[in-house]
Specification:
α6 links the parallel β5 and β6. The two termini are about 40 Å apart. By secondary structure, the protein is of the alpha/beta class. A seven-stranded mixed β-sheet has the order 2-8-7-6-5-3-4, with helices on both faces. It contains 13 helices and 15 strands. α2 crosses α9, α3 runs parallel beside α4 and α11 packs across α13. The structure holds 4'-deoxy-4'-aminopyridoxal-5'-phosphate.
């Protein structure tokens, strides 16, 4: 993979940190900033229905962005790509429309995982609260990997939804999503399977059609795009049969005071003016990732994660959570006798940006009997020097804290 750091203006700032908080959000390349600037400076108009030239240009850019997003994830059609404000919105959308459709009811079961982000727990828990469905939780193995045996044992005639993270944001482990989806469908062909791809998009090649899930959600801001953007991919037949979640402009075909009919896909799920600039810039980010080569990014990040894993494991009293292999672009550690926040604060003072805390995975932390971890997460622009600087800073910080 080519060295892409100079594509990111932030790293030219004199006080730029060694940035290892990419699982929280990534920095933005010039291609994305330019797309935002060009849209607002020269192309700004509301989309669809506009009779004028600018509106046509903006509409074309926006719908081309959708086609680019579809190609990026291997969707059969751009109609299956719903733009959202992020991964969280996508998951909430699905939870709500399943309820509106009456597809989840009293006694049904919704399977989530111990390593899930709150975004992939709470919407389901709220759905359970409203419908009388029950949350079932797949435990982790002692090695902190997905427990396939426990999962398949949990599946039953009432399993209505399975919601899994593709890559866990707190542990960094890649879940065997293809097998997870296949088992859910074997158990019950009409089980709805949603994959939370927040930590996978941009880090590993995606092919939603081949995965066999029903929904795949991710956030733009973790793939070099602006905040407030995201994609929810859904299987066409489901998107067509499910009802909309929000009412308003754009999602309608015809409105009378007696009755409203809804727009075709994907607009049925996009009430109101969307984040036009953001979605155009999201497509620029996805094109940027394609240009770097997502498989090459994956290999590059994997090597950095291995380097972090080995370097951190070698430090006295540091425990890296989970096995070395089968991991995405991050490692999480706990340190004997040292609070994660203290280590993170010292690292910050040494110019290294990491994330500390529960990473929106409180149930996971509870299951591990800890309050948080220190998480080092990499992206395409990180390099060996970043990792070595973080390792040296961690070693120094730990000497100070003990
Ligand atoms: N799921 C996972 C695995 C995540 O890492 C995150 C973000 N930390 C989310 C969901 C939620 O993403 P957002 O806040 O961008 O909606």
């Amino acid at each position: 993979m080519r060295d892409c750091r100079t594509d990111f203006p932030l790293f030219a700032e004199a006080d730029a940190p060694v940035y290892l908080d990419n699982a929280a959000t990534t920095q933005k390349p010039r291609a994305v900033l330019d797309a935002l600037h060009t849209y607002y400076a020269a192309q700004n108009a509301n989309i669809h229905r506009g009779a004028h030239r600018l509106s046509r240009i903006a509409t074309e850019l926006h719908e081309q962005a959708r086609a680019d997003a579809a190609a990026f994830i291997g969707a059969a059609s751009a109609d299956e790509v719903v733009f959202t404000s992020g991964c969280t919105a996508g998951i909430n959308l699905v939870a709500m429309v399943l309820e509106f459709a009456g597809m989840v009811g009293q006694g049904d079961e919704i399977v989530v995982t111990t390593d899930a982000h709150h975004s992939n727990i709470v919407p389901w828990q709220m759905l359970c609260g409203r419908t009388g469905a029950q949350l079932r939780v797949v435990p982790l193995t002692a090695e902190l990997t997905f427990d396939m045996a426990a999962y398949t044992a949990l599946l039953g005639p009432r399993t209505r939804v399975v919601a899994v993270p593709h890559i866990s944001n707190a542990l960094g482990l890649v879940n065997p999503v293809q097998e997870i989806i296949a088992a859910a469908k074997r158990n019950r062909a009409d089980c709805i399977v949603l994959v939370d791809g927040a930590q996978a998009a941009g880090h590993t090649p995606l092919d939603v059609a081949a995965l066999g899930c029903d929904f795949y959600a991710f956030s733009g801001h973790k793939v070099y795009a602006p905040t407030g953007t995201g994609v929810l991919w859904g299987r066409r037949a489901l998107l067509e049969s499910l009802p909309p979640w929000q009412g308003g402009g754009e999602m309608i075909a015809e409105v009378t005071f007696a009755k409203t009919t809804y727009n075709k896909l994907p607009f049925k799920y996009e009430a109101g003016t969307p984040n036009i600039a953001g979605n155009i810039a999201l497509a620029a980010a996805l094109r940027y990732v394609r240009e770097l080569g997502v498989a090459d990014i994956a290999a590059h990040e994997r090597a950095l994660a291995d380097r972090l894993y080995d370097g951190l494991s070698a430090l006295d009293g540091v425990r890296v959570l989970g096995p070395r292999g089968g991991r995405g672009a991050l490692v999480s550690v706990v340190v004997d006798g040292v609070h994660h926040y203290d280590l993170g604060t010292l690292l910050d003072q040494m110019g290294v940006a990491v994330r500390t805390g529960h990473h929106c995975c409180q149930p996971l932390m509870q299951s591990l009997g800890i309050t948080g971890t220190v998480r080092y997460s990499v992206a395409a622009y990180n390099n060996d020097a970043d990792v070595d600087a973080a390792l040296a800073a961690t070693q120094r910080a730990l000497r100070m804290l003990r």
